[in-house]
Q: What sequence folds into this?
C-alpha cells in the first residue's frame, strides 16, 4: 500500500505541477502589476474591517479561518521536512512560491467572493462554485468538489493528527504501549487523540460561526507566540543570521541535496503550507461579509505572507541557527549528506523544530512546540472540515440529503485517529496526493477563467478606481461585464430599492 501511495504521489507531484504552480503565480503577479506588493498597506487596513452579519463573517474571521488551514503542520514539520530532504535552499523556493502565490491567492479568493451564494443562512463559495458559474463547466465543478471532499475529508486530516502524536511522544515519551487494531500505540498518544476527537466533534457540529469564533482567538495567539520564541532564538544568535541567509540563498541554486530536490521540496512544502493555488483558501474567503470582492482577495493574499514569510521562516531560522537537522540524499536513498543530530530522528516530523527550541529553552521549548502543533493542527483540521462541508453543500444541489455530511464528519474523525498512529512518511505522501489533486484542477481552472472572462482582474481595477475616486465602495458585476454573479446582482437590486 505504501509503495502504491508513493508511486501515485510521484506522478501527481511531477515537475509539471511544480512549474505550473510557479507559472500561475508569476502569470497573475504580472497581470495584477504585483498587487501583493502595491496593496500591502491596503491589506493591513482591510484586516481591521469589522463587517459581519447573521449570514457572513468578518474579514478578520475569514482570515483566521483560512489561516487555520494555512498555518498548520506544514509550518513546523513541513519546513523541517523541506530542509531534511531538500536542504536549506528549499526555504528560498518556499519564499518564491509564497511571493508569487500571494497573487494566485488574490485571484482565487476574489473569484470565490464574486461567485458565492447564500445557502441555508450561510455564504458558500469556492472553486466548484466559480467553475460552475464562470466557466459554466459543471463537470469540472463536480470534479473539484469530489476531489476536495476526498482530500480534505480523507487524505489531509491524518497529516495534522500524525504530527500532533509525534510531538506528544517527543515531549512525554510513549507511555504504556496499548494494543489496538492499528498495532501497539503509546498511551500518551491515545490521550491526545481522545482530546482532539472530543473537541473536534463539539465544534464541527456548530457550523462556520463556531469554527470562526474559535480560530480567531487561537490562531493569532499561537502564531504570535511561536514567532516571539523564534525571534528570541534569532536575537540570541544575531551573529549567525547573515551566514544562515547566505547559506539559504547559495544552496537554492547549488543545492546540497540536488537542485531538483531543493525546488521540488520547497515548492511542494510551500504550497502545502500556504495553500496558494490549491483551491482551499476561497472557501473561507467566500464566507466573509465585504463591500467588494477584491477586498477579501487582498486579505487572503496577505495570509500567504503570514503563513510562509513569517511562520515558516521562523521555523527555518530556528532549525538552521541551532543546527538541529540532518539532510538526506535521494541517491543512494537514506544516505546523509549532512548529519548534525541522531540518525534515528525522523526527518518528516516536527522533531527538528522541537530539538531546536530545546537547545535554547530546554524542556519548555520542546513542550511549546508540542502545544503549538496541537492547536495549529487542530485548527487546520477544522478548516479541512469546513472545506469538505462547503463542497458537500455544492453537491447537495444534485444529491439532496443530510447523510453525506454526517458521513464526512465521521470519516474525518476516523482519519484523525488513523493518521495519529501511522508513520509520518506514509501519511505525508497521502496528504501530498490530496494537495496535488486539488492544485491541478484549481490552477488549470483559474487560468482558463482568465482567458474566458478575466473577472478577478476587472474586479481589482474597479476597486482601485473606486478607492481613487473616494466615496462608498460598491460592486456592480453587470457594469464590469461579469455574468452569473447572482449574489451581488441581488444585493445591488436590494440597495437600489432601499434608496427609492
A:
Amino acid at each position: 500500500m505504501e509503495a502504491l501511495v508513493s508511486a501515485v504521489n510521484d506522478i501527481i507531484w511531477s515537475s509539471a505541477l511544480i512549474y505550473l504552480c510557479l507559472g500561475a503565480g508569476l502569470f497573475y503577479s504580472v497581470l495584477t502589476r504585483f498587487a501583493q506588493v502595491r496593496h500591502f498597506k491596503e491589506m493591513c487596513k482591510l484586516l481591521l474591517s469589522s463587517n459581519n452579519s447573521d449570514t457572513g463573517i468578518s474579514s478578520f474571521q475569514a482570515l483566521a479561518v483560512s489561516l487555520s488551514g494555512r498555518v498548520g503542520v506544514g509550518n513546523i514539520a513541513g519546513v523541517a521536512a523541506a530542509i531534511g530532504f531538500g536542504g536549506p535552499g528549499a526555504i528560498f523556493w518556499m519564499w518564491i512560491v509564497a511571493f508569487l502565490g500571494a497573487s494566485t491567492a488574490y485571484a482565487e479568493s476574489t473569484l470565490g467572493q464574486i461567485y458565492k451564494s447564500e445557502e441555508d443562512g450561510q455564504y458558500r463559495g469556492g472553486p466548484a462554485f466559480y467553475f460552475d458559474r464562470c466557466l459554466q463547466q459543471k463537470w469540472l465543478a463536480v470534479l473539484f468538489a469530489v476531489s476536495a471532499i476526498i482530500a480534505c475529508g480523507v487524505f489531509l486530516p491524518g497529516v495534522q493528527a500524525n504530527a500532533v502524536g509525534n510531538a506528544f511522544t517527543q515531549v512525554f515519551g510513549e507511555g504504556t504501549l496499548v494494543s489496538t487494531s492499528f498495532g501497539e500505540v503509546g498511551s500518551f498518544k491515545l490521550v491526545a487523540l481522545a482530546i482532539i476527537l472530543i473537541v473536534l466533534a463539539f465544534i464541527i457540529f456548530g457550523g462556520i460561526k463556531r469554527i470562526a469564533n474559535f480560530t480567531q482567538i487561537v490562531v493569532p495567539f499561537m502564531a504570535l507566540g511561536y514567532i516571539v520564541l523564534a525571534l528570541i532564538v534569532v536575537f540570541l544568535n544575531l551573529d549567525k543570521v547573515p551566514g544562515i541567509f547566505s547559506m539559504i540563498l547559495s544552496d537554492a541554486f547549488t543545492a546540497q541535496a540536488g537542485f531538483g530536490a531543493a525546488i521540488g521540496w520547497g515548492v511542494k512544502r510551500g504550497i502545502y503550507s500556504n495553500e496558494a493555488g490549491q483551491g482551499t483558501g476561497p472557501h473561507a474567503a467566500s464566507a466573509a461579509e465585504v463591500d467588494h470582492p477584491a477586498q477579501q482577495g487582498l486579505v487572503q493574499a496577505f495570509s500567504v505572507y503570514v503563513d510562509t514569510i513569517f511562520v515558516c521562516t521562523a521555523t527555518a531560522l530556528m532549525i538552521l541557527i541551532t543546527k538541529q537537522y540532518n539532510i538526506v540524499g535521494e541517491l543512494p536513498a537514506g544516505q546523509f549528506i549532512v548529519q548534525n543530530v541522531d540518525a534515528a530522528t525522523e526527518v518528516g516530523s516536527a522533531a527538528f523544530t522541537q530539538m531546536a527550541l530545546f537547545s535554547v529553552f530546554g524542556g519548555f521549548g520542546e513542550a511549546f512546540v508540542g502545544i503549538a502543533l496541537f492547536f495549529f493542527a487542530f485548527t487546520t483540521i477544522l478548516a479541512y472540515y469546513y472545506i469538505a462541508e462547503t463542497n458537500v453543500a455544492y453537491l447537495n444541489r444534485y444529491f439532496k440529503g443530510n447523510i453525506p455530511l454526517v458521513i464526512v464528519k465521521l470519516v474525518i474523525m476516523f482519519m484523525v485517529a488513523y493518521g495519529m498512529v501511522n508513520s509520518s512518511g506514509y501519511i505525508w505522501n497521502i496528504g501530498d496526493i490530496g494537495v496535488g489533486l486539488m492544485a491541478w484542477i484549481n490552477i488549470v481552472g483559474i487560468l482558463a477563467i482568465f482567458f474566458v472572462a478575466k473577472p478577478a482582474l476587472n474586479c481589482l481595477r474597479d476597486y482601485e478606481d473606486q478607492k481613487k475616486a473616494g466615496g462608498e465602495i460598491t460592486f456592480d458585476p453587470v457594469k464590469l461585464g461579469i455574468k452569473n454573479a447572482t449574489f451581488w446582482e441581488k444585493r445591488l437590486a436590494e440597495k437600489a430599492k432601499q434608496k427609492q
